[in-house]
Specification:
CATH superfamily of the largest domain: P-loop containing nucleotide triphosphate hydrolases
Number of helices: 17
Structural class: alpha/beta
Strand content: 5-15%
Order of helices and strands: HHEHEHEHEHEHHEHEHEHEHEHEHEHEHH
Number of strands: 13
Strand order of the largest sheet: 3-4-2-5-6-1-7
Bound molecules: adenosine monophosphate
CATH class of the largest domain: Alpha Beta
Number of domains: 2
Helix content: 25-40%
Low-confidence stretches: 390-455
Distance between the termini: 42 Å
Shape: elongated
Length: 456
């Protein structure tokens, strides 16, 4: 099936073919005609399915039909996204697919100066892509008028709820014309009961679209655990990258502090490395990502939240330098590799403190991950497990409304736990009795629900 049969205009078909797309993806096949008919849509689709073009192409066409080029330009389409990176990506897609149409778009998110955004909004935009926090800042300053919005898109709605944006979403909805006179599109990777509630409030007799899940990460990606003592993880990582000649590696740590420290150490080992997390300015994050994609930066060290929404295609290697406190984050992390049908490799360096986290992950995956002890890195069985605490001492909590690059509305899901773990890296406790399995003294992982970025 080709794109020609979907009812898209010549300008859009041209942009699509310039992108090199020959066939619509399943979500595009289903969503594009429904959206063109003016229906509300509730779509279950993950990143990587082509969902962005699935809503961007038809909404561009709908706007093009009654172009209002000469008069004042009110915002007619509003796309809300959970993260800055996703907002930037959607904004890029709008520009790319709309390049042959006389429409204007803007992207607004926090962590960057507000004035250039105000200036752009003042000149008038048809399509606005925004994270909720910064959008509300604009609304508060009356630098954006949402009273003429014809189409609302909630992209990655499950993530938005996950990140505690429900109140902001409600506030934004109150600024829009009534549901009934608007077309509403909701995209989400999961349909939890919260998503269904939101959809019930928002959508009018929606067309329900579900595309087959891609093969799960567990099926697509080669996964391995390398047991190792905590204080030898950095050495092992440098060794793996060097000896296996990995050229592009995404490495996850639990905390910003841990990410910074590891990046500095890898640099000292002679590996070109950058860290990407919420305390970095938006400019620094964008530069790091661009350098990584271009191959100038060999290792990108990221926290879970900073990595959300990053579209790094066909990444060959993902390393869990520290396991995440929340098992679902493991799946998101390793989903960065093996994209676009390519095989990928996900390696986890697991110390004795993390045995319980590993068991939780394996329970979620419903399978064991193969364990391979690398020669020379056998864990010392006399080292006892130390608790991984979910501390509250300010490493990410209460950051909301922070200045440049603040990671979000409130918090970092893992809290200071990993920072603490990092700081204690390598310390051998003397005189503890040997423990046979796991970290039996480890507190269960807790999840702070209001984690996130993409705020102001
Ligand atoms: P998304 O799920 O929207 O994040 O898209 C995932 C990737 O698929 C992006 O890099 C798109 O450029 C790409 N893509 C979208 N539609 C198509 C298509 N019809 N054919 C090939 N690639 C596509």
């Amino acid at each position: 099936m080709s794109f020609d049969t979907l009812g898209l205009s010549a300008e859009l078909l041209r942009a699509v073919s310039e992108q090199g797309y020959t066939e619509p993806t399943p979500i595009q096949r289903k969503a594009i005609p429904s959206i063109l008919e003016g229906k509300d849509v509730m779509a279950r689709a993950q990143t990587g399915t082509g969902k962005t073009a699935g809503f961007t192409l038809p909404l561009l066409q709908l706007l093009g039909r009654h172009s209002n080029v000469k008069g004042r330009r009110p915002v007619r389409v509003l796309v809300l996204t959970p993260t800055r990176e996703l907002a930037a990506q959607v904004g890029d897609s709008v520009e790319t697919y709309g390049r042959h149409l006389p429409l204007r778009s803007a992207v607004v998110f926090g962590g960057v100066k507000i004035n250039p955004q105000i200036e752009k909004l003042r000149r008038g935009v048809d399509i606005l892509v925004a994270t909720p926090g910064r959008l509300l800042d604009h609304a508060g300053q009356k630098t954006v008028d949402l009273s003429q919005v014809e189409i609302l898109v909630l992209d990655e709605a499950d993530r938005m709820l996950d990140m505690g944006f429900i109140h902001d979403i409600r506030k934004v909805l109150a600024l829009l014309p009534k549901n009934e006179v608007r077309q509403n599109l909701l995209f989400s990777a999961t349909f939890s009961s919260e998503i269904k509630q939101l959809a019930h409030r928002l959508l009018n007799r929606p067309e329900l679209i579900e595309v087959a899940r891609r093969n799960t990460a567990a099926e697509r990606i080669e996964q391995r655990v390398h047991p190792v003592d905590k204080h030898r993880k950095r050495e092992m990582l440098s060794h793996m990258i060097g000896s296996r000649d990995w050229r592009q590696v995404l490495v996850f740590t639990r905390t910003k502090h841990g990410a910074n420290r590891l990046a500095q150490q890898l640099e000292k080992d002679g590996l070109k490395t950058a860290a990407i997390h919420g305390n970095k300015s938006q400019g620094a994050r964008t530069r790091a990502l661009a350098g990584f994609k271009a191959g100038d930066i060999r290792v990108l060290v990221a926290t879970d939240i900073a990595a959300r929404g990053l579209d790094i295609n066909q990444l060959p290697h993902v390393v869990n330098y520290e396991l995440p406190n929340v098992p679902e984050d493991y799946v998101h992390r390793i989903g960065r590799t093996g994209r676009a049908g390519k095989e990928g490799e996900a390696v986890s360096l697991v110390c004795v403190d993390e045995h319980k986290l590993l068991r939780d992950i394996e329970r979620l995956l419903k399978r064991d991950i193969p364990k391979v002890v690398l020669p020379g890195y056998d864990p010392d069985p006399s080292i006892p497990a130390e608790p991984i605490q979910n501390g509250r001492n300010g490493n990410g909590r209460h950051q909301h409304r922070k200045g440049a690059g603040g990671q979000g509305r409130s918090s970092n899901r893992s809290g200071a736990a990993g920072a603490k773990a990092e700081r204690s890296g390598g310390r051998r406790s003397q005189g503890h009795p040997q423990q046979k399995s796991g970290n039996t003294r480890t507190k269960p992982p807790q999840r702070n629900s209001r984690s996130g970025q993409g705020g102001r």
